[in-house]
DNA sequence: CAATTTTAGTTGACTTTTGCAACTAATTTC
DNA sequence: GAAATTAGTTGCAAAAGTCAACTAAAATTG
């Protein structure tokens, strides 16, 4: 119905609440990490020989922003920027041990929060939910492959 | 499983893609409106005698930010700031005709985009989806009432 | 009811996030 | 080999968000 809250409104609102909860939990655990940083660490960990341009493309953000956010992660010693062996223009981003540990810690907290947020949701409902999320991603027509659902 | 993408990661990514698509569609239609502005107009339209403090509480944002974003909406002549009749500290925010028209236009585009994004999603799946969203919102323990699901 | 506390709004200063354009160096294309 | 493209970098500026201080009005309370 047209009078309902738009899907995107609802989704955005929910995401925002969830994000606030996660960041609060990070802080409670003495973890100083922004959502963006968490996401970036996750992505760097996932991809072998990831370049900054790859990351910019993936998140649909300007490469200059990725550059600067990467700089912060490097200052924190979570990430190292290495010259690509084949293409001297490219820089490969890799996690340091410290970065990996932080990521694992953050993922633990994240899983815990997710679990709490999904309290009372039946497994089959969750399946439907993930299915819909996956279809929405496909329908944006911008994603590579939803290889992860 | 621990190796899966965290729920919040997936949700955030999806939301971001959807948001980009919506904003692109806004632009295609000559509508210069940010996501935040869209959401604010929507909320102002929904609530009678809404104060800035109410809005700040609702969105968990600082009142100074709400103040400034409201100023922009007022400059655009989408919103008017009126003195509350009973409490002289409060200002009620109301949509102008122009603001209402813009909101309706934006909502139309939003519904259209939502429809496209939900292409291939069965009605019952959508129900499950909205149900899960609603439960997540409840579980954040911060929302007033999910009166709208 | 006068004094204190709280609330809503406002402003200033500051940081973070983001976007756009220009530039460099390396690689590809033609 | 020249021209076009690509990855990374930097400068500049706008937008978003935080924190603290201040004003005026209301609510509290002793």
Structure description:
With 149 residues, the first copy, chain A, is mainly α. The first copy, chain A, has one domain: Winged helix-like DNA-binding domain superfamily/Winged helix DNA-binding domain (Arc Repressor Mutant, subunit A), CATH 1.10.10. Chain A is built from six helices and three strands. Chain A has a three-stranded antiparallel beta sheet with strand order 1-3-2. In chain A, helix 1 packs across helix 5 and helix 3 crosses helix 4. Chains A and B meet through helix 1, helix 2, helix 5 and helix 6 of A and helix 1, helix 2, helix 5 and helix 6 of B. Chain A binds a DNA duplex (30 and 30 nucleotides) through helix 3 and helix 4.
In a few lines, what is going on in this structure?
Two copies of one chain form a homodimer. Chain A has 149 residues and is mostly helical.
